[in-house]
Amino acid sequence: MKTLYISLFAVLFSFGAHAQVDRSVLPPPGPAPKIEFTDPATFTLDNGLKVFVVPNDKLPRVAFYLILDRDPLFEGDIAGLTGFVGDMMMAGTTSRTKDQLDEEIDFVGASLGAGSTSLSGSSLKKHQEKILDLMTDVLYNPVFPQEELDKLKKQTLTSLASSKDDPDYLAGVISNALVFGREHPYGETMTAETVEQVTLEDVKEYYQTYYKPNIAYLAIVGDIDATEAKALVDKYFASWEKGDVPKFEYEQPELPTENQVALLDRSSAVQSVINIAFPVEMHLTNPDYMATRVMNFILGEGFNSRLNGNLRETKGYTYGARSSFGSDKLIARFSASTSVRNEVTDSSVYEMIHEIRNLQVNGITEEELKMAKANLSGRFGRSLENPNTIATFAINIDRYDLPEDFYSSYLQRLDALTVSDINEAAAKYLKPDSMYITVVGNGSAVKEGLSQFGEATMYNYKGEEVQEIQLSDDNKTASEVIADYLTAVGGVSAVENIKTAKLEMSAEVQGNKLDMTAIYDTENQRLTQKVIVMGNEVSKTIVKDGKATVSSRGKSQTLTDEQYEDVKMASLWLIPELYYETMGYTLVLDGATEVEGKATYKIIISNPTGGQVVNYYSIENGLKLRSENKLSGDTTFTEYKEFDGVMVPVKMSIKNPMLPVPLETEVTQVELNVPVVDQDFN
């Protein structure tokens, strides 16, 4: 019997050994399934509204999504208009104020929102008629209050002011302007000037022109059937009157004949944002659509892409590099982007172009294709878990005249792609020699290196090309620019006579008033700066005896010697230019450039420990228009006033990474040569 057990064990062991799965090898993929969708019920009202109903009874909720299919709109002098339309529609109706509307939405636990091309609402099944009542009230009866537009414009202007210091935003503005053109809907730039010009009549005209049922799709998703949906739609949307909606045509953007480099100079930047892009004709109906999805996934979508592998994993230049290949009925774009240290900006651009060219010329591998297919098919499968996806698919098929099986055959078409298909798409669509290379970073540090890809053209935050300003005097020196500034503010003697100074300033951040004071003791090289919010001191900086101390919320920190030198160079004196050369600072005239539309000399001031301040002085009148400093941020001086014969800046905009928005500061009191005591610096 013992022998039998041993023999049986041996047989089972042998069978198990042979049957064990080799987990180091992926199992072969099965055939791609054809996904069977339950077609949404669809019908069209007499006014042209097309309705799609997707029943889903997993939760007792219903959602209504209204989409307007208008042509892209070039807004021109009122760029920013469409950003206001949705909020203005939600600002009250002829029967409900904004507060009443919000209260009724909250009372039933619903949601309701609007945009320039959309209106949506959702609620529990039992409240579906309530949300439709609110939704159609907003649709038919908005009152567009002027005070709401004023508030929205103010918020937008604040956001724009902050965006002017966001390198990613700036790179996008310039890249869009280059790829599409500034006279194209996708290339125009919203500015403070265009926002200010938007009127209430513009908002009303947009609503009256484009909110029409004959260009609209309504998707209904949730615990509802087609019969019930039809009755509700007839009740709430049949009275919506159709109308003529204008159509637009635009010139197609063209590829540049060679790579072009665009640079926005931010002297205080320690990193460069790089965006490489070009226009491309690609839409869902294009037979190469699927191949370009796979191609882009391999190039720059996902952690294991070629761009990320090169710049992050191999070179260590960045935390991430990505690419995208757009799809749009009008015109799309290819884009690759990353953020890197100044010193590797040109190397990063080189590697990005190398990866784009390598894929175009040499194509992909079978292993890369398998990886891309697996990821894209998984993503598609996960998207089907959301019932809204089915409604979107149905609308897209009608809206873009797609084949009926466009989505149901998606996985089969993806699985059928071969290495040859992807390589042909890469050879056809990638343009490594006809791209716009946009860089936002420290011009002095990166411009020369970028010249290998083409002569860098300078741009401003509006996406406008800035003509490089030729120095009016080729022999001008940095010291002479500083001397001109001292003359402009009142002369060296007047500045030398300032022994002490007290300044009081005020600003506002997100509704909170800030009061600031600064006390200067020039002869003893002492400084005190305080920030007070609602009567409470929130921070204090003291410079004295060769040290700098920063206190905040009961905690105090003594800065390092290097930090002290940086504070000293930037802030110790009311008019620091008088002391630059006597302190042994190095002054370099780094050409001329534009600041807020004015021609300026750019002066780089460096201290012995390596700290830098970059100042910009008006070529016209010699006054300082901006100062950039990595420690304290960027300060733009917008107004000067005379005090005891010396011109002092009294209005300034301060941008700092620690501030959510630019700090618009006004000097409310200036006292020169007033008594100071030791207690002022404790």
Overview of this structure, please?
The strands form three sheets. The protein has a 13-stranded antiparallel sheet with strand order 18-17-16-15-14-13-25-24-23-22-21-20-19, with helices on one face. Strands 1-2-6-3-5-4 form a six-stranded mixed sheet, sandwiched between helices. A six-stranded mixed sheet has the order 9-10-8-11-7-12, with helices on both faces. It is 34% helix and 27% strand. The protein is globular, with a radius of gyration of 32 Å. Strand 24 and strand 25 (663-672) form a beta hairpin. Mean pLDDT is 91; it is low at 1-19. The N and C termini lie far apart (97 Å). With 682 residues, it is of the alpha+beta class.
Based on CA atoms alone, the radius of gyration comes out at 32 Å
Q: Approximately how much helix is present in the residues?
A: 25-40%
Number of DSSP strands? 25
Task: State the end-to-end distance.
Answer: 97 Å
> Which ranges are low-confidence, i.e. pLDDT below 50, for 5 or more consecutive residues?
1-19
Question: How can the largest sheet be summarized?
Answer: 13 strands, antiparallel
Q: How much of the residues is beta strand, in percent?
A: 25-35%
Number of helices: 20
What is the global morphology?
globular
Q: Identify the strand order in the major beta sheet.
A: 18-17-16-15-14-13-25-24-23-22-21-20-19
- Mean residue pLDDT: 91
Structural class category:
alpha+beta
